[in-house]
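Continuing the batch. This is chain 6 of the set; chains 1 through 5 are on the previous pages. Same settings as before, nothing changed between runs. Recording input and output for traceability.
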Amino acid sequence: MADERKTRSTRSNETFGADRLPDLTGRTVVVTGANSGIGLAATHALAGAGAHVVLAVRDEERGRAAAAAVRGSTEVRRLDLADLSSVRAFADAWHEPLHLLINNAGVMMLPRQRTRDGFEMQFGTNHLGHFALTNLLLPHVTDRVVTLSSGAHRWGGVRIAFDDLDLTGGYTPQRAYAQSKLANLLFTLELQRRLTASGSAVRALAAHPGYAATNLQSRTANPVARALLRLGNRVVAQDDKAGALPTLYAATQDLPGASYVGPGGLGEMRGAPTLVGRSPAASDPLTARRLWRVSEELTGTRFPLAAEEAVRQG
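Output for chain 6:
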């Protein structure tokens, strides 16, 4: 289908790397889950380009240890995306301009668990936590919001289970993860629609790292899957620095709102960052609007910018 075809960027990106970022001096960036993996690799690159990077992490001690190894301007603030009170506390303490919000943190293929607020852990952390954080910080954002998704949004023809978001009637770690990554793309789609309708110049984009070796794979529920993923990490995967390139590309290049960036190689598993396609389910504006309304109800947060009524009716 047309929605599945890759849309390649006309920009020459084969030479794009962390050493080719624009000068980010004077810009402030928040990176969730920045103490390890792709988030930490992105933090190194952004701080190295002159940005002041706030590591938004659940474990402040680990965050401080990670920040100590970063060359550049950083600070550490606590944020637990699985606890909406923590999300609100983080946002309430923010008073300065924020140029870039990178919704990077995530959990992957966990055994059935629930967040502090009672949501299925993967949907609650990967989508609802970032949904609330973005809405609460949006009045401060001046440039863009980049949200991490995954090729998993296509797994098994996944759809948003609006009648059973917690998947109580058929939970598997894979299905829950795929639903949360589909939600990330639908969130980006509807966020961009609302930003445009409100007259905002802020852009919403999404990215995925391909197959990148991070500590997420070690936390999956199935021991066989963990073993296979460890093997894949050694044989197929990119390292976390290469995995961070789509995030950095989405964060710094002149791309249209609602763009989706991933690796350009075979199966989007590795390679130079470029614009990539998404599934029909991830491209449906009606589903995106419905998910937004449900997410507002579940988190108690709302799109905060002007022309709210026009945005809702648009």
